């Protein structure tokens, strides 16, 4: 009888191919270390000065990387900053979509064993900020950053697409206004948390935010329920 391993033999690599694969992995690790060093150094400098005042020389000296190596990865400081924003945005984009996966609710909501309502996506936001405080400070307060506007727009687009099938035009406008009211309220809460030295724990500030969101979310959920009722025969 022919075994499955015989039917699907393991791929055979020549010594030269194995060397190339090992080299690529080594290059990937080296690239990641270089990018990490440059991004971390940029964050440190942005805590002290504006983006336009940072030079490639001081950045590469702080990162202990040559200017030649810098130009292998980026065209200038703005390019590095844009890549830093993009990397962070992708992580937040995932959180946004996971927060809106529930087909019956505006937001994905869970209830714990004690009966407390939880918003897992919101908790992930505060946990990320706590784990990456300096990064979040520069992205939330730097005038050169487009991070927040991209996040708000992604959230708005995702929410409006989600509610389009159950809301009429007038209700959709109301949902949009309430989205910005809630989003800006949470933004203010985050900024205050950062500005006051993050004295509250992640759990504490998450609970404050959750209470605020759920209080305002009742309108959106009511609108959604009413629209579904109207649509039903």
Descriptive notes:
By secondary structure, this protein is mainly α. The chain folds into two domains: 14-74, Arc Repressor Mutant, subunit A (Orthogonal Bundle); 77-231, Tetracycline Repressor, domain 2, CATH 1.10.357. The chain is built from ten helices and two strands. The chain has helices at 4-7, 15-46, 56-63, 67-73, 77-99, 120-131, 133-141, 147-163, 169-195, 202-231, and strands at 110-111, 117-118. Strands 1-2 form a two-stranded antiparallel ribbon. Strand 1 (110-111) and strand 2 form a beta hairpin. Helix 6 (120-131) packs antiparallel against helix 10 (202-231) and helix 9 (169-195) runs antiparallel to helix 10. The longest helix is centred in the N-terminal third of the chain and has 32 residues, at 15-46. It is elongated and about 55 Å long. The protein starts with a helix and ends with a helix. Mean pLDDT is 80; it is low at 1-6, 18-24 and 228-233.
**Domain unit count:** 2
Total strand segments: 2
Order of SSEs = HHHHHEEHHHHH
Low-pLDDT sequence parts: 1-6, 18-24, 228-233
The CATH topology of the largest domain is Tetracycline Repressor, domain 2
Distance between the termini: 62 Å
Average pLDDT level: 80
Can you tell me the overall shape?
elongated
CATH class of the largest domain: Mainly Alpha
**What structural class should be given to the helix and strand makeup?**
mainly alpha
Please work out how many helical segments DSSP would assign.
10
Share of helical residues: over 70%
Radius of gyration: 24 Å
Portion in strands: under 5%
